[in-house]
User: What shape does this take?
Amino acid sequence: MTYVVAEPCVNCRYTDCALVCPVEAFHLDDDMLHINPETCIDCDVCVPECPVEAIFAEANVPPEWAHFTQMNAEKSQSGLPTITARLDPLCEPAAAH
Assistant: This one.
């Protein structure tokens, strides 16, 4: 099992989750983060750090966001940079869901 970043991260992209990841499994694209399933050790520390509740255990990804599982795998392994530093989010905290 791995963890998956889903729809709530799109155009929001908080990086708090990446800062606590002990194995640097998060990768950055223009509008969201992706978790590399090959790197993720299923430790769960990222989940409570996401202010928009965008991270799910693979088995618990809501059905409407199931395609994010494959998207995370593909995008994280496509050469996107690993993210280990705090960046300003793309959305305002008040806009977070």
Observations:
- The mean pLDDT is 94.
- The helical segments are 16-20, 67-76.
- The chain has one domain: 3-88.
- Residues 67-76 form the longest helix (10 residues).
